[in-house]
Amino acid sequence: MGLLKALTLAAAGLAVVHAKPLRERQLAFNYNDDKVRGVNLGGWLVLEPWITPSLFEPWANGGGVVDEYTFTQVLGQSAAQNRLEQHWATFITEADLKEIASVGLNHVRIPVGYWALNPVAGDPYVQGQLPYLDLAIKWARGAGLKVMLDLHGAPGSQNGFDNSGRFGSIAWQSGDNVPNTLAAIQTLANRYKDDTDVVTSIELLNEPANWGNDMNLMKKFYYDGWGNVRTTSSETAVVIHDAFLDVQSYWNGFMGAGSGVNNVILDTHIYQIFSDGEVGMNPCEHVQKACSAGPKVAGTDKWLVVGEWTGAQTDCARWLNGLGKGARYDKTFPGAKNYHGNCQGKFQGTVDGMLEVDKVNLEYYLEAQLDAYERHSGWVFWTWKTETAPEWHFQNLTRAGLIPQPLTSRKHPGQCDTSTCMIPGNQ
Ligand SMILES: *[C@@H]1O[C@H](CO)[C@@H](O)[C@H](O)[C@H]1NC(C)=O
User: Fold this and answer.
1) Rounded percentage of the chain residues whose pLDDT exceeds 70
2) Domain holding 313: CATH number?
């Protein structure tokens, strides 16, 4: 059956019978039998003020810069280009990829914006990211790592988050934005079609919001994007994000076996910090909630990767909620409901400078999450490094002994096999 016909049938919701078995074996990573253990290279080719506050410090008290869009707009082309080139060349280097491999990780997920791939006329963004992406793939190959490429920002913004490139409204599905997103995916797939030994997966779009977007159009985009990747390469898995909808009740049945598409990975992001209720949970409740995700991720009808998660149990990290904004946890966020505690050691600083009690809680929480998220295809931590947010800094957390080495060992085994909280002092 022709690809287009299969897609048309699949899009129409008709079952497509496969003449051949699915071709998972052609992928250079065995997503059936091996666990994805990865880190995101966040804040590198797509800026996030809270990951690299030094770049945004001039606007700490205002001035209209809150994301990469306004950063490039306010600085202007040549100044923005200079600062970004310097950032790209230094924030992630070959030494990082080597260290990532040396601590037992096997994947890196690399966010990249449409503006690096398919710039849209009138945008202020600057280009030049792709040579660094090429390098990262070369370094990953040298280190024995696999790469998940991740289109993190779409024109118009798919979620209005600053990490989409542009904070504010959601306008991804208006005008030519969706076709331009598909063109960006095509550029990505074409550029790395001969690197499928390393680039084992491409994520069509990070965190498209289920609010402010039409889900039927999003699903059509997923089929079209899958087609763009698949016509270019049969050896690349296609990653779709769950749009913050239930990975089982909403997504089971979509793009599953029998829908005419193959090698699809569902990406879900698990954070317990973006509501008042969640930042109000105690460490035992955070562990319990992490464990409860285990059966959830285990029960999907397609591969599932927890593509983002963190050691943080609060939203204390400076600017995590946006440049200049405070935290729900200490009630400094606009409209925050309750004061839950102070952000000492978590607002900014180093892993070594965290409070002892926070280190202990983080260690239990991390291991519980590893237990839960390995129940399906694996996980990718957010993020490898930050300038000043300790609980999000996989590199330093590992160096400090707060992440198990090897990654499969446990100091606190069996947390998800009991309803008893194992954290000392938190019974
Ligand atoms: C990470 O470790 C490096 C090297 O020790 C240090 O310079 C940096 O401040 C640390 N950052 C965090 C957030 O822990």
Assistant:
1) 94
2) 3.20.20.80
